[in-house]
Amino acid sequence: MSIGHTLLGLLESGPRHGYDLKRAFDEKFGHDRPLHYGQVYSTMSRLLKNGLVEIDGIEAGDGPERKRYAITEAGVTDVRRWLATPEKPEPYLQSTLYTKVVLALLTRRDASELLDTQRSEHLRMMRMLTERKRKGDLADQLICDHALFHLEADLRWLELTAARLDRLAEAVTAR
Amino acid sequence: MSVRREGPGAPEGSRSWGWSRDLAMGVRFAFTGGREGWIRTLLTAVGVGLGVALLLLTTALPNVLSARHEREQARRDYTYDYTPKPPADDTLVIADLDSTYHGDDVRGRLVQPDGPRAPVPPGLRTFPAVGDMVVSPALKKLLESDDGALLRERLPYRITGTIGESGLIGSHELAYYAGVDGLAAKIDPPNVARISAFGEPHPFAEEAADPVLLLLVLVVFAVLLMPVAVFVATAVRFGGERRDRRLAALRLIGSDSRMVRRIAAGEALAGALLGLVLGTLFFLAGRQIAGTAEVFRVSVFPSYLNPSPALAVLVAVAVPMAAVLVTLFALRGVVIEPLGVVRTARPARRRLWWRLLLPAGGLALLYPMLGQGRENGDFNQYMVTCGVLLLLVGVTALLPWVVEAVVARLHSGGVAWQLAVRRLQLSSGSAARMVNGIAVAVAGAIALQMLFTGVDADYTKATGQDVTRAQMEVSVPDGVPMARVTRELGATKGVRKVVALSEGNLGERRMSADLNAQVTVGDCAALREVATLPSCREGDVFALRGSDYDDNMQKLTGFRTLFLDPADGEEDTESTPVAWTVPRGLKQAQTRLDMTGVKRGGFLVTPAALPAKGAATVHGHVFLGLDPSVPDAQEYVRNTAARIDPLADPMTWSATVESGRFASIRTGLFVGAACVLALIGVSLLVSQLEQLRERRKLLSALVAFGTRRRTLSMSVLWQTAIPIALGLGLAAVVGLTLGTVLLKMTGTSVSVDWVSVLSMTGVGAGVVLLVTLLSLPPLVRLMRPDGLRTE
Amino acid sequence: MTSPTPPPGSLLTASELRKTYGPTTALDGAAFSIHPGEVVAVMGPSGSGKSTLLHCLAGIVTPDSGSITYDGREMATMNDSQRSALRRSEFGFVFQFGQLVPELSCVENVALPLRLNGTGRKEAERTALSWMERLEVDDLKGKRPGEVSGGQGQRVAVARSLVTSPRVLFADEPTGALDSLNGERVMELLTDAARSTNAAVVLVTHEARVAAYSDREVVVRDGRSRDMERVV
User: Fold this and answer.
1) Which of B345, B422, B706 minimises the CB distance to C104?
2) Quick check: bond before B190 cis, omega within 30?
3) Average pLDDT in chain B
């Protein structure tokens, strides 16, 4: 995720102090990982340098949180361009899980045991997310759903692989 | 599949082409719809087939009657010719020896040809030799079985052949021709006579139709045919819900709603056509079975059951057409959408007025004929038939309305009741359809029963015989001594009481007497059966008082000599008058109702008081009281009588006798009603099972959460019982109305025979109960948890 | 596999269950155990024997061999009517579809289990309506099942399964016919309601997102069960 673009976007609604920016970011997007002040400071300096933001005013004192930032015309254009550019879909072609399964088969270990354990782990995570989703607001729900759908996709893959273990074993050992 | 648009601009030619193409497609679907499609088509076909078979049978019935009538006429030995006929080489002496065995009639003839050219009876090639007999196949079988042991005793002849079909009127008829000698001496028309040909000398086509009998026949046919029509209409709807789903799929791939309707009609047509084939097969099979079966003592030969060609063609055309029309009619309230079939959630409330028009129209047609009676000429056959049919169709039109109206007002009780009532509220139409057939049959049957009971008095004659005093009567042939008859019958197993009375006639002159009186000869015990005697000794003679002939008796007792069996005139050579001197000690006796239901008059004479030659002038009758605990008492008596003299004529007494014609209509009604009820039972069972199969998943779920099987079974019972109760109620009302109208038409006083109303509705209810019982095992099977497993 | 003696505190326990339908083996030594208030997901590919396990546990189907104990009672010793009575009073059921009686209104459907237990109509429908309120379908009371959406119908079914306050709720693919939003809502309402009455839930599903509403899962494969909590 591009922190620079996110902070720029947050500035579009009006000028803010660096501290406000961090709080707004954490509230909306930083569920798992809140921003450090340092991150905000370094990002804003970079944006200043590139002319995407400008200083709107400085309050007495020191530190980035004392500065009020405002977005520039170039900044608005940049945000618009970022939003219009589609994200590259993650192909997930390099999978640790797949590697583990094949290795287990090659070394004649119990691959289904591995798959079951992994499924259990996935489900544990899904339970957690589900629980959080039930207690959280709409933003929480959407974020958790995103994760849940990914985990579900993994689980489906686990099921499918489990069902095809025999054929996979034949294929990898024959090679 | 190609999609054809049928816009307003479509040319006329393509429209009819579209019809036939869609119908053809429907026909193809009926046979290619997989296993389910086949089963559905087969069910429809079996249903229609049964209906067609019954229709063909009905159209063949008139032929049966006339075939039997012709055969009967062809083998007639006319013995009512009282002028003596001299023996010639083309004459034959024949004696009628009809008897009864275990309730079945046995047609017996003794034959003695006078010469080589004597007429051979139909079905025989030659005459049986003396001591031999030719029997019908059924009699042969009976005599060879253990059941026939007693009859075997009565027929001491050697079986040398069987009577061919042309000599019999039914496959189960018991008949024989036995060869005897010395029969010529016993000629005594109509029992023994000399004839020169078989066959009715004055053939008559049919008994001139009595208008009331004709009315009965018409109504019987209308009553039998209506339920068959209802049944055929139900049969083409078998499996309707699955069919609807298939039609929806057709809509999805682009058929318009008119096309799917025609395709549906085509499917029904296929079922109906297959049904025609099956029906013909059923009919042919039924014809063979009919040849081996005997219903209500009527048996026929398969060759009798030939439907008249015109009626058969009518059936062949009308049934498939009706199938198509019914299908289109049934789809009227259904919108087939591409994604499923929508029945308008709450169908328009059924309207009453046009439903009332039908029975009202029926009554209006019958009304002008009220009070016409037997004397005022014929009924208009068409008006009668149409009127009766409209009244009965009225039942099928009114029933859905009644069911809907009543069911909507039912309040919920227990769970089973609630489930049933709610289901009926949602689909009262199909419930009403289910019981329509039974309702029509019961309504018709009640009306007929009423008509029968009403005109019973006219066609059933009271015999006057007092069956509490005697149960059998044996008429003793001339020349057989009464003493022997009395002795032998008295010694017969199962006989408790023997009353032997001989009767004759006497007058005041040897020839052409003015005053006549009856003479009754018997011992004192026997005479006490006919009069109250002050005292009685052998040799006594009594003059009877208290009868209608008291005036005559007054005059006759004035004569010293009276003549037994006085001659009728110069030409009367049969009579052999015997002079009888009236004894001095003539006693008076009060007559009483005898066991034949008569208060007799004349003289009572003890045998000793009769002149020696007098015995020949009186004719003997022996009245027998039987022991009811001896089951074959009647057969023992008949055997004894046959041993004494084959011509002795034993009769079983009954309180009433029915006119033969009337009895056969009644028989026809019973046979038909039995077939119709069986047919309707089958269709009820099929639709019941179909309904249950469609709810299989739900039933399993209900059982899963702990519903008692009893609750579900009860709900199935209620679900049938409620519409049946309503249907039978309506049937009773319409039946009584129709019965009343019919009775008024015949000019008979109206009285409701509640026993028959109850028994008819009872029979209808019984069929339903039976069907419910039969559908319970499949229900229990469907309630197994297997239904929960995802398909 | 569990030992024949039920774990302490367990409400419903099964061990060594075997069941064959003709030539197919549905269960081949499956085991199961659930505590009061616990939600256990039974997972596995289709045809693995999940539903058969549920049917055995609920006393709908009798296993060929093996033991099922409910509340200290061995199910094999009960006859059919005793098991039916158990299902009526102690268990609740939700299926994928086709479980609502189409002729009855929604509230009558929900009241049905109470009425089967002999409760009067008025009282049963009052209780039914309060459960329909909890599942947010009380506005559908007069409608017939054919007139409501799939999600609404399923909520009515959940209300019906809970109306007798069962101690065990059996749910066989309860969201199978629903989209994910409706499915989640049904699962939330179902588990919330079950937790509030401390009912145990046996949840048969092949969807991980549905199974995520459970406390633990049991995987059935080829008729054999695997209790994942005990494995890890």
Assistant:
1) B422
2) yes
3) 77
Neighbouring residues of C164: CB distance < 8 A, sequence distance ≥ 6 = C88, C89, C92, C113, C114, C117
Q: Which residues of C touch A155 (CB under 8 A)?
A: 208
Q: State yes or no: chains A and B have 3 or more CB pairs below 8 A.
A: no
- Identify all chain C residues contacting A123, using CB atoms and an 8 Å cutoff: 208, 211-212, 217, 228
Inter-chain CB proximity B704 and C112 less than 8 Å: no
Q: Enter the pTM of the model.
A: 0.62
Q: Which carries the bigger pLDDT value, residue C67 or residue B610?
A: C67
Q: How far is A106 from chain C (nearest CA, A)?
A: 23
One-letter amino acid for residue B440 of the chain: V
B458 pLDDT tier (thresholds 50, 70, 90): low
B205 CA to centre of own chain: 22
Mean pLDDT confidence for B313-335 = 78
By CB atoms closer than 10 A (0-12, 13-18, 19+), residue B573 is: exposed
Given a cut of 80, whether residue C43 has pLDDT beyond it is yes
Task: Say what the pLDDT of residue B433 is.
Answer: 73
Domain ranges in chain B? 11-75+213-345, 77-195, 363-461+656-791, 472-654
Q: Is the pLDDT of residue B210 over 60?
A: no
Q: What's the pLDDT at C128?
A: 93
Q: Do C161 and B415 touch (CB under 8 A)?
A: no
Q: Residue A65: pLDDT above 70?
A: no
Cα A174 to chain centroid, rounded: 39
A120 contacts C208? CB cut-off 8 A: no
What single DSSP character describes residue B628? T
Which of B646, B584, B727, B569 has its CA nearest to residue B227?
A: B727
pLDDT at B725 (0 to 100): 85
Best CA proximity match to A2, nearest among A62, A56, A57, A46: A46
Given an 8 Å threshold on Cβ–Cβ distance, is C188 in contact with A117?
Answer: no
Task: Return the pLDDT at B224.
Answer: 67
Residue C24, chain B, CB below 8 Å: the answer is: no
What class is the C1-86+200-232 domain? alpha beta
Q: Which of B54, B33, B57 is nearest to B271 (CA)?
A: B33
Residue of C nearest to A120 (CA): C228
What is the ipTM score, two decimals? 0.82
